[in-house]
């Protein structure tokens, strides 16, 4: 039977109560290359085991809660002595190959943490799904794995993450290319708005990296989260400048589109649905009695029902007339379905004909729907429901400044006319938002 190791700082709950809370465990070697650690939090601590491999890298395992608040039961709540026994059981299992890893399996790298995170994301153990999963995988493969994937997690430093993070923010945006072709390089961002957008992108990618590493840390695969916890995102870069079309621009754009694409543009303006949601709609998704549109697969992976106005209801009645319930509502002129990236070229051409400059993306049609609702005084929770936002935070970021408010109305009613603007008979032909 292995000898129990004693430690004046860890033996008793009274001794552990005098230790300062910290993320890095208080380690005590119990055998060469094998240690037991006590990580103290504000509400008690947990026991961890650490095993050194032949290449001097470490693997970790969370053993259970310490008996700081409750008496030890030998299973989930452990004394220092019981934690040692459980650690030795794990060390032996690793040596036998029964612990899911072998002593020569190599270090647990950032790449392993990313793989585990994606697997949990796909299995539903992480919030999100659908397109969100695809976006997360794209961010990992394009920005994180090439630079950090081979680094063992226990050797990851704050300085290394910060260098990667700032290099990403200073790099040019990636340009898409057709399969088998190299994308043309873009210039590095120089103007303030381009820098803001790249920093906002870097923040989103950093969030993915931290989520993967935090999951590995909570699972006991990483000894501490200090390396990435200290990396701060860029501040004041996520405030969106929402572009939307006026009613006159909307009408010009619709008239400038070819007939098959015109139907998609009309539907986006009338419903606020995304392009991917619209091209997947089938005739049975339209409920003429309730005046709703069922979006069965959204970006978040959740279904929702879009409320249709009288104009939108009439539009979908015409669009689905005589259609089989399983038939797609929107098809190209050749009868084929709209593809994943078939929208931007016809939209750019339509913008040029409609004198809308610079050309908009299809997502601006969704913003137009939300902006019109906000400017008409529709409550933000209602807009969030219509657009399929999980809560009102996204809605507030994009549309709160457009909504009528007590502050705006009070300022406009109270501020006097200073008489410093000369009257003129000249009026612009149109006003931009």
Question: How does this structure look, described?
Answer:
This protein is 43% helix and 10% strand. It is an alpha+beta fold. It has 3 domains: 13-96, Double Stranded RNA Binding Domain (2-Layer Sandwich); 110-229, no CATH class; 247-414, Intergrase catalytic core (hpI Integrase, Chain A, Orthogonal Bundle). Strands 1-2-3-4-5 form a 5-stranded mixed β-sheet, covered by helices on one side. It has a 3-stranded antiparallel β-sheet with strand order 6-7-8. Helix 5 (158-170) packs antiparallel against helix 6 (192-218) and helix 9 packs antiparallel against helix 11. It is elongated, with a radius of gyration of 29 Å.
In short, what is this structure?
This protein is α+β, with helices and mostly antiparallel strands and 433 residues long. The chain has helices at 13-17, 80-96, 110-123, 131-148, 158-170, 192-218, 226-229, 247-256, 259-271, 275-279, 310-320, 344-353, 363-375, 380-387, 392-399, 406-414, and strands at 26-31, 34-41, 44-52, 58-66, 77-78, 286-287, 292-295, 304-307.
Task: Draw up the topology in text.
Blueprint: H1 13-17, E1 26-31, E2 34-41, E3 44-52, E4 58-66, E5 77-78, H2 80-96, H3 110-123, H4 131-148, H5 158-170, H6 192-218, H7 226-229, H8 247-256, H9 259-271, H10 275-279, E6 286-287, E7 292-295, E8 304-307, H11 310-320, H12 344-353, H13 363-375, H14 380-387, H15 392-399, H16 406-414
Parallel strand pairs: 4-5
Antiparallel strand pairs: 1-2, 2-3, 3-4, 6-7, 7-8
Helix pairs in contact: 3-4, 3-6, 5-6, 8-9, 9-11, 9-13, 14-15
């Amino acid at each position: 039977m292995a000898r129990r190791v004693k430690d004046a700082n860890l033996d008793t709950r009274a001794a552990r109560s005098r230790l300062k809370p910290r993320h890095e465990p208080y380690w005590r070697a119990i055998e060469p290359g094998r240690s037991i650690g006590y990580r103290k939090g504000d509400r008690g601590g947990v026991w961890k085991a650490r095993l050194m491999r032949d290449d001097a890298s470490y693997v970790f395992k969370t053993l259970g809660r310490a008996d700081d608040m409750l008496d030890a039961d030998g299973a989930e709540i452990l004394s220092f002595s019981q934690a040692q026994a459980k650690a030795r059981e794990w060390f032996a299992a690793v040596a036998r190959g029964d612990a899911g890893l072998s002593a020569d399996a190599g270090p647990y790298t950032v790449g392993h943490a990313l793989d585990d995170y994606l697997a949990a994301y796909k299995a539903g153990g992480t919030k999100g799904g659908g397109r969100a999963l695809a976006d997360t995988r794209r961010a990992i493969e394009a920005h994180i794995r090439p630079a950090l994937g081979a680094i063992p997690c226990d050797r990851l430093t704050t300085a290394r993450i910060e260098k990667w993070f700032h290099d990403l923010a200073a790099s040019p945006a990636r340009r898409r290319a057709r399969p088998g072709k190299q994308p043309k390089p873009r210039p590095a961002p120089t103007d303030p708005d381009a820098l803001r957008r790249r920093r906002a992108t870097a923040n989103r990618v950093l969030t993915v990296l931290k989520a993967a590493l935090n999951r590995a840390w909570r699972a006991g695969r990483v000894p501490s989260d200090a390396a990435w916890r200290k990396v701060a995102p860029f501040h004041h870069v996520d405030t969106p400048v929402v572009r939307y079309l006026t009613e006159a621009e909307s009408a010009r754009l619709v008239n400038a589109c070819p007939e098959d694409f015109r139907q998609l543009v009309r539907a986006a303006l009338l419903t606020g649905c995304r392009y991917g949601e619209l091209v997947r709609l089938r005739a049975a998704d339209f409920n003429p009695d309730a005046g709703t549109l069922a979006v069965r697969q959204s970006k978040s992976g959740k279904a929702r029902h879009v409320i249709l106005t009288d104009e939108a209801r009439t539009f979908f009645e015409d669009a689905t007339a005589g259609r089989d319930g399983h038939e797609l509502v929107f098809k190209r002129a050749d009868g084929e379905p709209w593809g994943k990236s078939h929208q931007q070229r016809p939209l750019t051409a339509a913008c040029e004909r409609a004198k809308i400059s610079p050309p908009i993306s299809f997502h601006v049609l969704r913003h137009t729907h939300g902006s019109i609702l906000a400017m008409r005084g529709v409550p933000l929770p209602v807009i969030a429901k219509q657009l399929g936002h999980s809560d009102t935070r996204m809605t507030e970021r994009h549309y709160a400044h457009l909504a009528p408010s007590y502050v705006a109305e009070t300022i406009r009613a109270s501020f006097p006319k200073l008489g410093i603007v000369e009257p003129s008979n000249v009026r612009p032909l149109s006003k931009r938002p």
